[in-house]
Protein 1
Amino acid sequence: MEGGIVEGGQAEQQTQPVERLNQAVQQQLNLESVKTRAISLFKAVSRILDEFDAIARANSLPKWQDVLSQFSMVNLELYNIVEDIKKVSKAFVVHPKNVNAQNATILPVMLSSKLLPEMEMDDNAKREQLLHGMHNLQLLSQIDKLKTRIDMIGAACESAEKVIADTRKAYFGTRQGPSLLPTLDKVQAAKIQEQESLLRSAVNQGEGLRIPGEQRQITSALPMHLVDVLNVGESSQTFSDGSGMYTKNNPTFSSNNITSQGNLIQASGSQLIGRTAASPGATGSTSFDNTTSPLPYANSPRSGANILNTPSPQQPSQLQQQQQRQKMMQLPQHQQQLLAQQQFRQSSVPGIGQNQLVQLHDLQGQAQQKFQSMHSQHQMQFSQPLGSQQFQSRQLPSGSIQHGLGQSQLNQGNQLNRHLNQFSSPANSALFNAAQSTPNTQMISNMSGMMPSQSLLPRMQQYGLSSGSRSLASQNLSDQMFNLGATNPGSMMPLQQQQQQQQHVSQGTFGNMAANAQNMQPGIVPLQNTQQNHPNYQQQRQQNQ
Amino acid sequence: MECVVQGIIETQHVEALEILLQGLCGVHRKSLKIHELCLKSGPNLGTSPSEVRLLCDLEQSEPAWRVRHVGGAMRGAGAEQISVNVRTMVESKVSNNVLRLFYALGYKLDHEQLRVGFSFNFQRGAQMTVTVSSVNKMLRLHATDEAVPITPGIQLVEVTAPATSENYSKVAAAMSSFCEYLAPLLHLSKPGVSTGVVPTAAAAAASLMSDGGGTTL
């Protein structure tokens, strides 16, 4: 059947030798020879079959040697023909060697010479449309007519395109009056070229947009869409291993964040919590292992690499304000510093002295400020205006340095800041240890010092810190301290509670705290009420303020 | 996948371009203000750094975040014959803690920019989006309110159209034919190939801005 088609094709080729196939000549020769050979083979096979027939009728034994030789000859001839056909018929037919999964479904369609019914209908319809009125003519003339039709259409398209292009050019040409194309002078063109390359490289590769590492600090208020998203601790800077722990733990806690500045604190708190949980013993131990605190020494090398300016401890308020301003925007470098400083700070608890008291006072102030800033942020305001207010109220010095906070202030600032996480982690770890063992004065005072910062943290961060009405600051502190270690992390400490604590902190002395430490047990009960006060914390906060 | 071309236009002609686009596209312009953060992966995430872009649409009342990964452009003899850039692109909407997620994964901020402008989204042989925007940089990290244009006198025009590997040639053709209409004002080319400004831009802009009668020069 394919042979028939091939022959038909060949016949058509002979009538129109150059029309159909480009390499038709060669293939024509092959086809003819293949045809001849096929016919001769056919004749040979039929002759052999006749011989067999005669032998069978005569009932005589065939001469096997003759039969085999004839068979081999036929076999060889067939093989040669098939090879030739394969070469030729690739263009025409399908010659599958085997049927496998790939071609099983398509083989019937490909091997059939009849078109699918839809295709056939389509074909007929198109042919009808094309040869309308030409059926009576010969094939050649039909083809000629079709060709002329095609040429006409092509010419029409080209002229139409040309007309459109000309019109377009003319439109803009005539609009501008005299048909002088304005040319850019070289200087202008060069400038534009330079600007263009600048723009393109900036857009595509980011050239010229990269801020060097030391300038990568979030120094101004974050825009609205980043306030909720970007934790101050999650900048792009490389973290030290301590900060690395931060980021590791962040996602686990971030799900609870609400869109407010509280989120930032929460996230940071979660960091701290996670950090604490990761190695409560370690942080706790380190916090207590340190010896004398370097806090009084503003420029001491222990304060960390990034502290450029260390204001004297006598001016804590100013620095604290600065710190607060930057709390939301501090980079992990600062976090690291803060962590280190926190630890320093904790270690300094045993050596409670005037400095710490001052710091505590500062903490209170800072906490309040922080509270204000947080409050504002809750109202979706940028902290910057508040910061400025705070600055005014606190008489901040001009030229605040972003980094340059004294160690002591950094610690303080940290505590108040969203780096509450940092704070809370040591604090939490401390509390944790405290809860597990007998609380000592140092821890309590430390924790109370931490309280203001923790108070700023959003709810979830504080393990057991529940906000609630607290009668005594000391009571609250002790309660908090207890809860940090013991209660479930789910309880949140409303800000109001922290406020109370802050106020208490300012009043409290270490002796007070020590006394409160004893009250830890009784303090548990009131603590649990705090959670219920969650929704009202804002009110309470305001009251406290 | 997407087909993309870029071009530049002087800021003074942007209004004329808007008029032309309004006429060509038949849709209303959409204002655009996008904060684009480009994050690069750290060394802990594979041997070769990958880049991801976070786009925050600030135009809405609620910032809408999208993440976008752009792959390399198609290369080869076939690609050179096409006048547009065909490249893989994956884009998705994300929630607003995507930045935190990527930071947690180890990505770091490489650079950021703010694009302010307008865009037209229409169908003309293929679904296309034309964006005309001024690309601004922020002097301080994330300070989008204080962004200044990188090139004050020049704005970026970008035409993009989503495509698949089967129909990208058609989409590219549709895009090229559309870009021809913008020829009097600007030339569009593959990103990275600079074009310069068109000398007829001023005249074309003038004619577009005028009320349609007479010569304006």
Protein 2
Amino acid sequence: MEYLIGIQGPDFVLVAADNVAASSIIQMKHDYDKMFKLSEKILLLCVGEAGDTVQFAEYIQKNVQLYKMRNGYELSPAAAANFTRKNLADYLRSRTPYHVNLLLAGYDETDGPGLYYMDYLAAVAKAPFAAHGYGAYLTLSILDRYYKPDLTRDEAVELLKKCIEELNKRFIMNLPSFTVRLIDKDGVHDLEKLPIGAK
Amino acid sequence: MALQEVCGFNKFSYLYSEWNISASASVYLEDTFFSFHNRKNTDFGGFFTGSNGSPLELYVPVAEYLKESPLQFGQASPNVTPQPTAKPEYCSLPSLPFPAGIPLSASSSIPLPFQLSHGTTTLAFQFQGGVIAAADTRSSCSGLVACPSSQKILPIHSHLVGTTSGTSADCFLWKRILARELRLYQLRHHRRLSTGGAAKLLSHMLHPFKGTELCVAATLCGWDQNLCGPRLFYVCSDGTRLQGELFSVGSGSPYAYSILDRDICWEMSVDEAVALAREAVYRATHRDAYSGNNVDLYHITAGGWKRREREELKEEYYREKEREREKVAERRRKMEKADGSKCVK
């Protein structure tokens, strides 16, 4: 029901998430933000079971901020991704696992942009593009077909629009709007909500 | 704990040394990260504490079984393996028949003494004149009306009101616990906790019970002086916490949503808002078997909450039938007059 997507370019990462907070068959909120800002250049997108998402994401967020306070410098995206994965793995083997699927997107000064795909079984994979949710079944082949490693920002947004068009056409759930953000060396930028004109 | 540090509470830690045992045990200075130890419900001589055992945490002396896994809680035979993924879907929208036929006790090993009550219609929305909270008053118990005049909107303090949905007993208890915690906060810090803070507090207090049979779905409606005014939060025992301008919870909520979504707007007058809330609850009680009897209405403004007289919906039904009859008679009279004037050329 929920949908996350990330596309990595040569010097940026574009991420988008739907804005629906649902409870059984009812949409309780139409403007819900599923992205959590871990630091100036790292975003964590989190979907999954109702309470687990916010609890886990806020826990990771606060710990990343604590690291910065204690040590004076921020965690890199790779380190944050591995920290998140370790926590997921530890709780998976406890009596209270977190059922969350994540995308971590960030920009590192030395390594450049990075997109990490993580799922509730604590797998992590660094990927050029990734998606979560039922919508992923419909959009991954579009990403496979049109993705190039050196795509520009505009091309990435066009690719994202293609994916959302396909969802609006074929996906059974109504996802009226998506929050879109871009991470590059200057930090996190909010782009216009898609589809154009969505509130 | 972050809240303690923000409020400068650490200076009192010597007074509550026995509660801070776990806090000192779990903060390892060598470790870079603060471990989230108390997810495993460590033993504290019969007391159940949340993370860090700070005085702001829940302190409820309960029986031994709560020290074990929350998934084992309530089970007759403790050797049954818990299924962590079989979290009951219905908790967020009780008694709704989707998906097809999930029984009320999702895991067959838990023998419930009787069916818990889940059906209700509650709604709350904010507008220019504050926040309106409305609910029906029927408590059902698997097809039987256990109480036709229960109170589903509970005031927590002068500027905060909570609607209850799910298990009535759980809701009533947790509202009282929340009221106590908010009062303690007010006494300690000389200011009222905001609605968002109260929602977060309730959400974190309910989190250890996730996966058990506890079912609380509440909307907290309040007025914050220092923030922008009216505030509305939806808190559910499955962990959801949402801020919004319109929420409806319960088995009758889809019916209420359809009425509210059409006519709601920020610029409504108080009378219009009250009438809309009444209408929404009335329509929901008409269609939903588990909602009915009366409607309670609370209006929260900067000066606190005001309770409107409880109103019987049976009367409303008969009044509407009367209005329909009159309209039909009126239409018939008009048509006859038109026919009559045509005949008389």
